[in-house]
Amino acid sequence: MATKFIKIIQSVRTLRHQLFSGAFLLAAVFAISTSFLISSPAQAAIDDYVRRYLKVTEPIPLKVDELGQTKKFTPEDLRQGKELFKENCINCHVGGKNIPFPPVSLSLNALGAAAPARDNINNLVQFMRQPMTYDGSEETFWCRQVTERWMPQQQVEQLAAFILRAAEKAPGWGTANDRRR
Questions:
Q1: 19 shares its domain with 59
Q2: In a 10 Å sphere around its CB, with 0-12 CB exposed, 13-18 middle and 19+ buried, how is residue 111 labelled?
């Protein structure tokens, strides 16, 4: 019994020396500081869907017009756009699908093949303000008109930014068989 007790005391002393060695303390400080960098409050505040599926943790540029000009949208802008989409669009466009007209989804290919192309912020906002058929030949009543009184410019741009980023990055957004026409 005494030998077991002596072995335990020796093990504790050895462990204590290892725990307080310079190398161990340096490794512990490194591990703790790294965990703060990885899970900073800014990272934690980002919406999980925006971070995980849209792959946005800092402001990103999105195409604003057909000339290729861009505007930066923050993770918070995309979260707001996601919420606006859930409140106003998801009934007909769950997962980027198009329930009223299934052959044409909200995939990037389908948006770009519309007339005019809806693969940039300005044109997508223009469509939301005055919905037109896919070929642009006449007004459509499948989508509700998003008036300025209903949704101010900043919000409709956030909604458009969410749709475009989801079309770029979200797994399963739209359909696999959309093609540019």
A1: no
A2: buried
